[in-house]
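Example record used in the benchmark description.
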Amino acid sequence: MTGLDLSPALLAHARRLSPDIAFHEGDFRQPPAPAGSWAGIVAFYSIIHLPREQVASTPVEWARVLRPGGLLLLAAHLGNDTLHLDE
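Model output (structure tokens):
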């Protein structure tokens, strides 16, 4: 298991909470992993941070790093509206 995030501060927090898990700085839109190398991806409310034009291409990239039969657990909000909150 590994964690991936853009934020060094969030990575430091995650490392304190779970010191036995490897956490890496990186962009989930382009996972720093070879094709077919991951057994699964958990992405809870991650794609809500993407511009609408990047929502379709990101899961395509996730499919690249998933091994055959790999699983994606994705949670997102439903709806037609775009909502941007600064806090």
